[in-house]
Every structure is written in structure tokens, then in C-alpha cells.
User: Fold this.
Amino acid sequence: MKIAITIFRYRVSPVFDWSERLLIIEKIQNDEKIQKEISLENLNYMEKVEFLVEMKVNVLICGVISDSLLPLLESKNICVIPGVAGKIDEVIEAFFAGQLKQEKFTMPGCHGLRRRQHRFCRGHSLS
Assistant:
């Protein structure tokens, strides 16, 4: 499984559309993971979508995402978990432990986005 998290400094970037950095994490086996940070600085939002598809990302964890990009990513079979906030290391740990639904990882005002993602992310660690 490959997950991508938009990052700003050491936290989840607040808006996917304007994110300039991405952390891609690939879970190999057991608890072994490979992490790679990538610059998105020169990519427009459509190029970001295509980049995620090319990288074979299964799950995107982000803050706010525009209404036009969310269904586009979902149509490319990328599970989007929007409305996430917090320190990157804690978000990664919570995701793989199935504990990302905790209130402390929810961006203020994003409760509706978080409820919506459950329809599209079946089979991933989202408990």
C-alpha cells in the first residue's frame, strides 16, 4: 500500500490544492515502511492528480481539498481522507494503527468532509 500526505513543515498541509510538498509512504511488510518526500512546487492541481496516479498512490491524506479535485481523485481509485490536521509522524502512526478518526486529527470545521470519506475508503486502515 502507498499513502501520500501533503506536508507543510512538520504538519499536514492545510490545503491540498496549494501544497508544495508530499510525503509518500510505502508499507512493505509488517511495520517496515519506505518514506520519500517529493516537491510539488511546479505542478498545477491536475498535474498533482496525474502524479499521484503515476506513483500508484492508494490513499491521500490531506487537509481541505477542492470540490472538483475530490471526485476526480476518487475516480482514479485513490482513497481521499480529507480534513486531517496534525503532526506528520502522529498522523502516520494513527493511520497505520487505524486511529485516524480521533478528534485531535480533525481540522476545525471539517467534520462533514471526514464523514464523507468513509464511503470511498473501504478496505484501508481508517478505523
Summary: The radius of gyration is 13 Å. Helices lie at 45-54, 69-75, 88-96, 111-116.
